[in-house]
Structure formats: structure tokens, C-alpha cells
Design brief:
The chain is α+β, with helices and mostly antiparallel strands and 845 residues long. Helices cover 36% and strands 16% of the residues.
Length: 845
């Protein structure tokens, strides 16, 4: 193995090289070469200036490096690569990761005196310069140090190339030509600058670092750069364990990368001819290694006789390599590409991602992601019926906005195909984060009516008439619109009923929420959504359009935005913007600035958040519309279901620590999903439940959850109002009076009464009752009479006549048989009501 530190001989070599270079400069100016320089257009004093103008300190840019997105295993701390992005496929290695065989192959074939010269092979270089000027040759005669300089110059040129230019590939080729094949005056200047840089590097860097830099930056054909990437690509091996034949092959390729590469199936120097040109070059490398004593004759014979047998590992890049994590990867990538923290322009940000060697550590939690992705795969086919069926799930940490899971039913692909099972659109994201414009979120949007209801001081126990109404007056931005809620109706054709907000929420009663909204303002409801971080998927404000049916969520919104809104309730009223990146490390090991955690306290008051959570717990309880998504693992849950026009569904649920949102529906068109069987039984509209349940169960297992705070007493109070007294009114009059006061009317069975049969004889309740409660009114049966009040003091004969006159029978006690007896009492008593035909007992004195 070559020495790792500079030797005295190496230092002296560097000094001699510097002296020799000065001699070359003087030679070029004062000797017989001067006429050649003049012919090339370079005067003597220009040659001197050429040296003097070179920088005193060489500042070499780091090579372009691939950027990698990672997920971290919280249990082990292991960083797991999800995907890499590069313009040049390069995996930098340390000196210790280079095998001695590889180093020997490179040195023997490229620069056998590398560890003894000062950076320049003077004799060969001067001859190359003179031949270049004369036009007799353009050969380089470069040392490894000079080749490193050349590659750095190519790298710097390529970094300045405009990736958006139509001539980008031609520009890259020109960078190579300018650095390697310039002739005449340009060739002299390039060679002299290369020499000066090489000597400067030798003064400031160790030999091992120079050799390592060269092997990390050199091109090995196409987009493969650096020895480690080349070893992996061509031989599925590492630079630390290459065989002699493999090492000699790679050492040969570096001499003319795009000609000698070994990944072509046909054409010149391909598998078809056994890579003939590369075999010739490999033979040269092996022969130099034999002459230099780096390998034995037996090793030479074996390696030289072996065919070139590449074992290509395709250099796949991008989020397609992230498998079930691909859509999260794409979401994280979009942050790098769009946030000004990572560059002034989109091109700057894109180039940083593909060239900057970033290590991007994300918020993805594989403990939750794995079960969530498995549930998605088990329940949601990629292309169910060729009618653009899609499904997406996302889980957020409520306390900081970290995205801990993101799943999708399709396979990530940036290649547009006719197969709907493949797409690059991130269904959970928006236009900026995944090129999706969102989806109608259905009744999950009722959250914002509930919040506005509470913020206006209403109670969740307030009772309203939640029946479907044809002429319901709605307030829209200080105006009034009349709507027919029957056009929407309720699930299953339910005509609605009178109840309180708790029941309306648990059963997701559309007509009940319209009744609530009629006491509010649609514009205020949309402003609540805006305050809770919700926008259209396009980025437009949800307050830009305000119509009564907004109550039911027809707006196209991302599942991510809805998850963050529900997380605000679970987090006691503090909103945290979704975030996917925890840390970014630059190629030099320094940390890059990233979008910070962005949480805003007081988006909801704690009282409103607690009471909203109290109402939303009913959704997840047995009998609630979201109960099928509840893991029932002991973790308290809130949630809400939603559907839109039978073509889209949502399920959002949350503990105090993690919120999960699942959308399933048509990502194009509105074909019915309520009639399409799923692959595991049931219908497509039902797959949201097992997907959400599995993701939330995994989150509960890792993050747990606490009891939600108790609701605010004022916002959960029982509301009592005065009940109008309607006894004596006609049934129609009584009904109008009670409904006008906000009550529901039920007509009961007739009761005894002397009034006409259409007159209310009794009501229940009377006095006070909960707002919207049902009041039962009972009409008279027309059969009631009163015991005559003047019966006292009458004779037996007169009393009998009086009772018979009102339809009552008489039963006289023996005391009434005496002559002159007068009535003293009756049972029932005089004046009391009773039914005709009743027998009245009469007592005399």
C-alpha cells in the first residue's frame, strides 16, 4: 500500500517541480520556443503574465455529489436511505475504502511516479506543450495531480451549465472538450494553468488526498462518477473489494470513459464484441502492474485471460426507488425544490438537490409507515376498475406537525402511462407538494361549522329542528339566500329529525348541520377553515368563494390540510403546519437551514377545542359514523367521516398525539364508488375504515394518547326556553305558535274535555323546555262535563234533575230518603270535570 503521508522525497519532488516549472516559463520566453509562441499569438510578456495572474491559493470546489433522502428508525437510530438524486452518480469514499489492488492499477497505468514527483512530469509536459503548439499532437502527458485539476475544471464548467437549456448536453460535452482537447494558444494556456494548479495542490494537500480526490471526481462513463459508483454500477461491488481484473478494467476506463465503458449491448466496444477496446486497455494496465511488480505473473495470466463480465446494477435515482415510501419522498423533495431557503430560483434549488450532496433527514416514522402502507396495499388496488380510483393516507404528529406516515394505492412513476395504477401525483398533498389540486372533502368540512357554532357561544346540547327543509334561509356574507336542503338530503334518504348538535355530529346529519349553519354565516364558517390552515389544493383561499352548500365540503382540499386542521383540535387549539424534513446536512458536514417548526397558539381557544373534541368523540363511539375506523385499543379518539356525491370519501381520526386522514375516491371523474366491490369484500366507499384504523392503531402503539379535556360547561350546557301556553287554541294555532318558538309539535291522543274536538285541551311540557324540544298537544275529546255547582242544598228530586240534565247518573245515599232532606255533598265534588255517564254519589242531611 502506498504511504499515507508525504515523504522527504515527495516534498523535494514538489520543490524541484516548482523550480522546473519556472525554468519552463523562462525557456518558453527566452529560447527557441519563442517563435512558436509568437506564431500561436502569445507574446513573451504574455507568457510571464499567464503565470503571475494565476491565484496564489488553489480553491477547488467539491465535486458534484448525489443528495439522499433518509428516514430514521427511532428504535435503532439507523438512517435508512429512501432515494437519491444526482446529475452525476457519485458515492464519495475515504482513502481507507480503496483497495491496494485498485490503487496499484491506477498508479501503474496513469502515474507510476505519483508518490515521488512534485505534481508535474516536466519532460513529458514540455514535449506535450511544444507538440500542441506545433499542432503535431494534443496529448496530455498529465500526472494524476494534473488529471485531478482537469477534472475539477470540468466539474466547475459543468456546474455553471444551465440545466434548463435546450443545449445542456452539448454544453457538458463542450466542458470536456475545452478541458482536454484545446489546441494552439488555448492549449498552451490550459496546460500551463493545469501545471500551476497541480504544483499548488502538491504544496497544500497530501498525496493520499490528491489521489482520493481524483478517484472520487473522475468520470467512468455516462453519469457514473467516482470509483465507488463505478464499482457498484459495473460490477455490483465496492471499491474496497475489487478483483485484479475488475480494478484493471476500471483503471482502463478512466482513460477514455465514454469510449471504454462496459454497459453497451451492441455496437463498438460492447457485449457483442466482448468489449474489445476495453480489453486492449485492460491488458495495458495489467502489463504495467506486472512490470511494476504489483502483481505476479500468475495473477497477470489469470486476469488477462478472463473475459470482461460486467454485473450491471442500474443507477436508478429519484423517488421511484423508495417503494412504499415514494409519495412521502416526493413530498419531501418538493420542499427542497420550492422553498427559497434552498435557493433563490427553482433552478438553483433543483441543482442543489442534484449536485449538492445533501443528506436530507425526514420525519417519516417507519414504525407507523409500515403498517399503514400494508393496510393500503391490502385494501386499495392500484387500478380497481379503470375509472381513476385512488386512495391516500397521511398521519401527523399533532404537537409539531411532523408527517410520520404517508401512503397511496398507486405506484410512483414519473413516466406517463395509460395504466392508472402508476402516477407521480401525491394525492395527500397539494399543487406545490405533489402536483395535486385536492379533492372534495365532504362532511369532514363540518368541523368548521362546529367551530364557528361554538365560537358564537352556542352549546353542543342546543336542540334544533334538523329536518330537511325546502326553504331554509342561510346567511352569506351579510346577505340571505334561501336553499332547498332536500337537494342534498341525508345518507339513506333520512328526512332528518329534531335533536342536538352532539347527535347531529355523531350521525353526520346534513340537514342538522344546515340548521346550525342557518344561525351562523357561511363566510364566517369559511374564515374558520382559513384560520385553521385550510386552502384549496391550488393554494387559493377557501374564502374566495362562499355558497350555502360549503357546509358539506364541496371544495377541493388536500387530505394533508384537513389532517392539520383536525390536529389543531386535538392539540388544544394550537395549529402546526405539516413538515417533512427534520435536518439537512451539506456535503461538507455543516447543517443547511430548513423550514422551521411552525406552530401557532390560540388558533382556537382551549374551551372551543375541548368542546369540539367532546362532540367529535361521538363520531368514533359505538353507533357513530366513524366507529369502524376506531382501533378501540384504549386510546381516546375523535374523528369525522365525509362523502361527496358518491364518488369520494374521507375518514379523519385523531388521538391527542397523532391525526390520521384517509381519502378514497375518484381522482378524475365522479363515477359511483358505492356500488363497486372492493378486493376484500364490502364496497370501495368502505375501504377508508380499515386503512385509517390500521394507521391509527400503529400510531397509538408508538405515540399513545391522553384523555381529551372536558368540554367547557357553558358550551355544553342544556339550553331551556319558555314554552308558549297553547291550551284553548285550535290545533293549527297551537302548532304555529310552538314551531314559531323553535319547538317541534306532536299531536297526542284526545283527552277529556268539554271543548270542541279541534281545541287543545292539554300540552306537555309547559313552562320551560330545551330549545327545539318536542311539545305534545292533546285536543279535547268533547266528552267532558262538570258536576253542577248549584247542586248543594237542593232536594233529592231537584238534584236528580240537575245531574241528569248534564248527562250524569245519580246515586243517592239513604240520608236523602228522609222528608225534607237536602244535598250536602257529592263525589265527584261540585264543579269538578268528569265524563258523561259518570255516576255521582249524593249525600244529604
Amino acid at each position: 500500500m502506498p504511504q499515507k503521508n508525504r515523504t522527504v522525497k515527495g516534498v523535494l519532488g514538489g520543490l524541484l517541480g516548482l523550480v522546473g516549472l519556472s525554468a519552463v516559463a523562462g525557456l518558453l520566453v527566452t529560447t527557441s520556443v519563442t517563435p512558436v509562441l509568437a506564431m500561436a499569438g502569445i507574446a513573451g510578456n504574455s507568457a510571464v503574465t499567464l503565470f503571475e495572474d494565476l491565484p496564489a491559493n488553489l480553491d477547488v470546489n467539491a465535486p458534484m455529489e448525489q443528495s439522499t433522502i433518509y428516514a430514521t428508525n427511532p428504535d435503532t437510530g439507523e438512517n435508512i436511505a429512501l432515494a437519491s438524486f444526482y446529475e452525476q452518480n457519485r458515492v464519495p469514499v475515504t482513502y481507507e475504502q480503496l483497495s491496494p489492488t485498485l490503487i496499484n492499477a491506477i498508479l501503474s497505468s496513469e502515474d507510476k511516479n505519483f508518490y515521488s514527483h512534485g505534481g508535474v512530469n516536466l519532460g513529458a509536459t514540455v514535449k506535450a506543450v511544444i507538440d500542441n503548439v506545433r499542432g503535431t499532437s494534443s496529448r496530455g502527458a498529465s500526472t494524476i495531480t494534473q488529471q485531478f485539476v482537469k477534472n475539477v475544471q470540468i466539474q466547475e464548467c459543468e456546474q455553471k451549465a444551465d440545466t434548463a437549456s435546450e443545449t445542456y448536453s452539448e454544453d457538458l460535452q463542450q466542458c470536456w472538450l475545452d478541458a482536454t482537447n484545446a489546441s494552439g494558444a488555448d492549449g498552451i494556456e490550459r496546460k500551463l494553468q493545469e501545471m500551476r494548479y497541480a504544483i499548488q495542490i502538491e504544496k497544500t494537500s497530501s498525496k493520499n488526498d490528491i489521489l482520493l480526490g481524483y478517484l472520487n471526481i473522475a468520470n467512468f462513463g455516462g453519469t457514473v462518477y467516482g470509483i465507488e459508483a463505478a464499482a457498484k454500477y459495473y460490477f455490483s461491488a465496492s471499491a474496497s473489494n475489487l478483483t485484479i481484473a475488475q480494478a484493471a478494467t476500471l483503471a482502463g476506463i478512466v482513460q477514455n470513459p465514454n469510449t471504454l465503458r462496459i454497459d453497451r449491448a451492441e455496437g463498438e466496444n460492447s457485449a457483442a464484441d466482448g468489449y474489445a477496446d476495453t480489453l486492449v486497455r485492460r491488458h495495458y494496465v495489467l502489463n504495467r502492474m506486472l512490470i511494476d511488480g504489483k502483481i505476479t505473473q500468475a495473477e497477470f495470466d489469470e486476469a488477462d485471460a478472463s473475459p470482461i463480465e460486467p454485473k450491471i446494477t442500474p443507477t436508478v435515482q429519484g423517488c421511484a426507488t423508495a417503494g412504499q415510501n415514494a409519495y412521502f419522498c416526493q413530498y419531501a423533495k418538493s420542499i427542497i425544490e420550492n422553498d427559497p431557503i434552498f435557493g433563490e430560483t427553482r433552478q438553483d434549488r433543483s441543482e442543489l438537490l442534484r449536485r449538492g450532496g445533501l443528506k436530507i433527514y425526514t420525519t417519516l416514522d417507519l414504525r407507523v409507515q409500515g403498517p399503514a402502507a400494508q393496510a393500503m396495499a391490502d385494501n386499495a388496488p392500484g387500478n380497481m376498475d379503470n375509472q381513476y380510483f385512488g386512495a391516500a393516507g397521511v398521519s401527523l404528529n399533532t404537537t409539531n406537525g411532523n408527517i410520520i406516515a404517508m401512503t397511496q394505492n398507486t405506484t410512483f412513476s414519473e413516466t406517463v402511462t395509460d395504466d392508472q395504477a402508476f402516477t407521480s401525483i401525491v394525492f395527500a398533498g397539494d399543487r406545490v407538494h405533489g402536483n395535486s389540486d385536492g379533492f372534495p372533502v365532504g362532511s369532514t368540512y363540518k368541523l368548521f361549522t362546529l367551530i364557528d357554532w361554538l365560537e358564537k357561544g352556542h352549546s353542543v346540547r342546543e336542540t334544533l329542528n334538523g329536518a330537511v327543509q325546502k326553504n331554509l334561509k342561510m346567511n352569506v356574507c351579510s346577505g340571505t339566500q334561501t336553499v332547498d336542503t332536500a337537494k342534498i338530503g341525508n345518507f339513506g334518504g333520512n328526512r332528518g329529525y329534531t335533536s342536538n348538535v352532539l347527535n347531529f355530529t355523531a350521525q353526520s346529519l346534513n340537514s342538522g348541520y344546515f340548521a346550525m349553519a342557518s344561525k351562523l354565516d357561511i363566510c364566517d364558517i369559511n374564515e374558520v377553515a382559513d384560520r385553521m390552515g385550510v386552502t384549496y389544493g391550488t393554494g387559493a383561499k377557501v374564502t374566495d368563494s362562499n355558497v350555502p352548500f360549503d357546509v358539506l365540503g364541496p371544495k377541493n382540499i388536500s387530505p394533508m390540510a384537513m389532517a392539520a386542521a383536525y390536529a389543531t383540535v386535538a392539540n388544544g387549539g394550537t395549529y402546526c403546519a405539516p413538515r417533512a424534513i427534520e435536518k439537512v446536512v451539506n456535503a461538507d458536514g455543516t447543517e443547511h437551514e430548513i423550514p422551521p417548526v411552525s406552530c401557532k397558539e390560540g388558533v382556537l381557544t382551549p374551551e372551543v377545542a375541548a368542546t369540539a373534541a367532546f362532540a367529535l368523540q361521538g363520531v368514533m363511539a359505538s353507533g357513530g359514523t366513524g366507529s369502524r375506523a376506531n382501533p378501540f385499543d384504549g386510546t381516546p379518539m375523535i374523528g369525522k367521516t365525509g362523502t361527496h356525491n358518491r364518488s369520494g370519501t374521507m375518514m379523519i381520526e385523531s388521538s391527542t398525539n397523532v391525526t390520521t386522514a384517509v381519502w378514497a375516491g375518484r381522482w378524475q371523474g365522479e363515477a359511483d364508488i358505492f356500488q363497486v366491490p372492493s378486493q376484500k369484500g364490502g364496497l370501495l366507499n368502505e375501504i377508508r375504515y380499515p386503512i385509517a384504523r390500521a394507521a391509527q392503531a400503529a400510531a397509538n402503539d408508538v405515540y399513545g394518547g391522553n384523555a381529551f379535556p372536558q368540554p367547557d360547561p357553558n358550551l355544553s350546557r342544556q339550553i331551556l326556553t319558555d314554552v308558549p301556553s297553547v291550551v284553548g287554541m285550535t290545533i293549527e294555532e297551537a302548532t304555529a305558535a310552538l314551531e314559531g318558538a323553535g319547538f317541534t309539535v306532536s299531536v297526542g291522543a284526545p283527552v277529556d274535555g268539554a271543548q270542541a274536538t279541534n281545541i287543545v285541551a292539554a300540552q306537555d311540557p309547559s313552562g320551560q323546555a330545551p330549545s327545539g324540544a318536542t311539545v305534545t298537544i292533546s285536543p279535547s275529546n268533547g266528552q267532558a262535563v262538570a258536576v253542577p255547582e248549584d247542586i248543594i242544598g237542593k232536594s233529592r228530586t231537584a238534584a236528580f234533575a240537575s245531574l241528569a240534565g248534564v248527562g250524569l247518573n245519580a246515586k243517592f245515599e239513604t240520608s236523602c230518603n228522609e222528608n225534607g232532606a237536602k244535598v250536602s255533598s257529592t263525589d265527584p265534588t261540585p264543579g269538578s270535570a268528569t265524563t258523561k255517564g259518570t255516576t255521582v254519589t249524593v249525600v244529604c242531611e
